[in-house]
């Protein structure tokens, strides 16, 4: 009986034995994998030791090549990040250095050496404002005398560079999409009271004359070139083109081109600039406005980095579709800009006037005054947040024949936004604005809100 039972159970016994035998190679495989990982770790430790030796010997090209291969494994390790950053900055791989030193400063903000290397990287990237902020923080931490002396030299170089004229070429392309609640800055009223041939009429407004909301796409191209004439003087060229295309209607599509030529020079701590500007505007593909202007600017630089500014703009605007609508313009701007720090701000007073070239257009001439306040807060090492408030009050010189009273406007705009730089050349931004214009003329009272998201590439 026992023999019969064993005979019947033998296939099951053999199957269990085979499974148990199969499990043994699996365990051996895990052990082998562990041994391979340990071997790789041993090799990587040897590479880290080699990296330290290369940094000590100042063999930075070889050090960067090795560190770049190890970055995926050891990013976040303070010792490795410092060695990676040093090899990167010494081989002019500044973006990689920036990331490494940013991680170090975030992890150990009290370490003056880490912050000094971050500041040095910003300096080499020509981010002079950010470099100055970080160098000043290093001095505030009271580092060793040798470090303080080196930092002081960099700060002197920054001040010298901010005054020295160096040749440079600038290009920026910004592409954005957004939504505008009032693309034509129009009223939301259904009808308006107008005086036509001395008769007061209630005139209905069609959709094109009323507040129109639309999403849009915009493109901005900005070219700039500056060339020194002497150590303290230069000439500059600037060309800007922008296009805005609305999805709701083509009537308010805008194309704007602007060209400017300027001459700059320093007298002591004052920077002077004179320029000539021409601007051409098309509305829905048709010529709408031409403006020619002369500009005089001065900027007085204070020792701690703050500055006073004065800008005068005298120009002539002409409307091809309305020959009698030409205006002469005079605008003056007085401003104060705080020293570049983690939080900086600017306050400007604006006043001026538009004078009509023809008496028949006197009701479009006006006088205006107002102010702008703008605040910027640096957000980490690569971002910034900002907001502004603008208020302009204006009064027109004569009564429009279509209305009963003289026009007075009070326009306010509140804007805010943020920008984040992925690298020295590429950044992303998000902007919001809300505006309201209150006018004694109902047709010119309106509100407007905008949301915009954009990508910028520059060098």
How would you characterize the overall build of this protein?
The chain has 459 residues and is an alpha+beta fold. It folds into two domains: 56-163, Alpha Horseshoe (Serine Threonine Protein Phosphatase 5, Tetratricopeptide repeat), CATH 1.25.40; 169-267 and 337-458. Helix content is 31%, strand content 45%. The chain has helices at 2-56, 60-74, 78-90, 94-107, 112-124, 128-140, 145-163, and strands at 168-180, 191-196, 199-204, 214-230, 233-246, 254-267, 270-283, 286-301, 307-318, 327-337, 343-356, 366-379, 383-396, 408-421, 426-439, 446-458. Strands 1-4-5-6-7-8-9-10-11-12-13-14-15-16 form a 14-stranded antiparallel beta barrel. Helix 2 runs antiparallel to helix 3 (78-90), helix 3 (78-90) packs antiparallel against helix 4 and helix 6 (128-140) runs antiparallel to helix 7. The longest helix has 55 residues, at 2-56. It is elongated and about 95 Å long. The protein starts with a helix and ends with a strand.
